[in-house]
Specification:
Layout: H1 3-16, E1 21-22, H2 27-33, H3 46-50, H4 52-65, E2 69-71, H5 79-83, H6 89-114, E3 126-132, H7 134-138, H8 154-170, E4 175-181, H9 184-196, E5 203-207, H10 221-229, E6 234-240, H11 247-257, E7 261-265, E8 271-273, E9 278-280, H12 287-299, E10 304-305, H13 313-323
Parallel strand pairs: 1-10, 2-3, 3-4, 4-5, 5-6, 6-7, 7-10
Antiparallel strand pairs: 8-9
Helix pairs in contact: 4-6, 4-13, 6-8, 8-9, 9-10, 12-13
This protein binds S-methyl-methionine, 2-amino-4-mercapto-butyric acid and zinc ion.
Cofactor: Zn(2+)
Keywords: Metal-binding, Methyltransferase, Transferase, Zinc
GO molecular function: metal ion binding; S-adenosylmethionine-homocysteine S-methyltransferase activity
Length: about 325
C-alpha cells in the first residue's frame, strides 16, 4: 500500500471518529501500574526484553478504553541501547520488530473480538510505531532540554535514527510516531530521513515544551515546523508529554503555523526529573479535567488527541467517551 492510501486510512479513521481520533495514553505508566520495574536506561523498552506479554496486555487495555491508535513500546528501544545490554544486532533488531508485532497482534485480537459484537462503538485501531528522540535514548532527561551539545550534528542525528527507522518500517506499522522531539535539528533530521529512506508510511512528529510557548531548545515552533510543513511524509505535527495546561495555547499557535493535522497527547502535568528518574508532583490533572480539555482541544482543531506519561486507560476512556459523544 502506497503513502496516499495510508494517508486515506488515517483520514478515514478520523472521519469515523467524528472528526477527532483518540490516541492511547501513558504506555510506560500502565506498565508500572502492573508492577514493571522500568528505572532503567531502556525505560519502558526494557519490557521488550523482560515481559513482552505485559506489553500486549497494556495495548489491549488501551484498546478496551477506546484508543483508535496504539503507540508501540519502542520509544526508548534503540540498537545502541540494546547493544550496551549485551544483545547482538540481530537480537536488537528483532526486539524492534517485535514491538510492532505485539501491538498489531493486540489490535487484531481486540478487533476480532469486538467486531463480532453488534452495536459496539469501537473502530479498528491503527498501530503507530514510536520513535523516541535522541534525548530519550540518552536517558538523561534531555528530551525536555533539547540540549544535545555542540557535537551533535544533523548527520549524527540521522545516523542515530536511520537503522531503527528502517527496521520499524519493515515491520509494517500503519503510522510512525516521532515523540518528544526537543529541537529543530532533530525534527529536520527525521524529515530528511523519511525522504532519503523513501518511507511509504505516514508520520507524525511531536515536540515537547517546557514553557508552553517554544520547543525545549528555546527555538520557536515557527522555526521547528519549517521543514515539516514541506514534507509529504508528515501527516500531523503537535505536542506530546508536555503539561495539559499548555495545550490550548499551543494548538492555537500550531494552527497558524501549519496546514498539517494537529496531534496532542500531553502528560498529566507532573514533571520528569531526568537525574532521579522519577516524576515530581506538580500541578496535576485528573480524568475529569482531561475530558473537559479534550473537547476544547477538538473544538480548536486537533484531529488526534490522547494522553502521555502518567495518564492511564481511565483517562483515555474519559476522552474517548467525550469525543465520540455526538
Ligand atoms: C518521557 S521520559 C519520562 C522517558 C524517560 C527518559 N528518557 C529517561 O530515560 O530518563
Ligand atoms: N510513548 C512513550 C512515552 C513518550 S514520552 C512510552 O510510554 O513509552
Ligand atoms: Zn510521555
Amino acid at each position: 500500500m502506497g503513502l496516499e492510501k495510508k494517508f486515506a486510512l488515517l483520514e478515514d479513521l478520523i472521519k469515523k471518529c467524528g472528526g477527532c481520533a483518540v490516541v492511547d495514553g501513558g504506555f510506560a505508566t500502565q506498565l508500572e501500574i502492573h508492577g514493571a520495574a522500568i528505572n532503567d536506561p531502556l525505560w519502558s523498552a526494557v519490557s521488550l526484553i523482560k515481559n513482552p506479554e505485559l506489553i500486549k496486555r497494556v495495548h489491549m487495555e488501551y484498546l478496551e478504553a477506546g484508543a483508535d491508535i496504539v503507540v508501540t513500546s519502542s520509544y526508548q528501544a534503540t540498537i545502541p541501547g540494546f547493544l550496551s545490554r549485551g544483545l547482538s544486532i540481530e537480537e536488537s533488531e528483532s526486539l524492534l520488530q517485535k514491538s510492532v508485532q505485539l501491538a498489531v497482534e493486540a489490535r487484531d485480537r481486540f478487533w476480532d473480538k469486538v467486531s463480532k459484537v453488534s452495536g459496539h462503538s469501537y473502530n479498528r485501531a491503527l498501530v503507530a510505531a514510536s520513535i523516541g528522540s535522541y534525548g530519550a535514548y540518552l536517558a538523561d532527561g534531555s528530551e525536555y532540554s533539547g540540549n544535545y551539545g555542540e557535537n551533535v550534528s544533523l548527520d549524527k542525528l540521522k545516523d542515530f535514527h536511520r537503522r531503527r527507522l528502517q527496521v520499524l518500517v519493515e515491520a509494517g506499522p500503519d503510522l510512525l510516531a516521532f515523540e518528544t522531539i526537543p529541537n529543530k535539528l532533530e525534527a529536520q533530521a527525521c524529515v530528511e530521513l523519511l525522504e532519503e529512506e523513501k518511507v511509504q508510511i505516514p508520520a507524525w512528529i511531536c515536540f515537547t515544551s517546557v514553557d508552553g510557548e517554544k520547543a525545549p531548545s528555546g527555538e520557536s515552533f515557527e522555526e521547528c515546523l519549517e521543514a515539516l510543513n514541506k514534507s509529504n511524509n508528515i501527516y500531523a505535527v503537535g505536542i506530546n508529554c508536555a503539561p495539559p495546561q499548555f495545550i490550548e495555547n499551543l494548538i492555537r499557535k500550531f494552527a497558524k503555523l501549519t496546514k498539517k493535522a494537529i496531534v496532542v497527547y500531553p502528560n498529566s502535568g507532573e514533571v520528569w526529573d531526568g537525574k532521579a528518574k522519577q516524576w515530581l508532583p506538580s500541578q496535576c490533572f485528573g480524568d475529569d479535567e482531561f475530558e473537559m480539555f479534550a473537547t476544547k482541544w477538538r473544538d480548536l482543531g486537533a484531529k488526534l488527541i490522547g494522553g502521555c506519561c502518567r495518564t492511564t486507560p481511565s483517562t483515555i476512556k474519559a476522552i474517548s467517551k467525550d469525543l465520540k459523544r455526538r
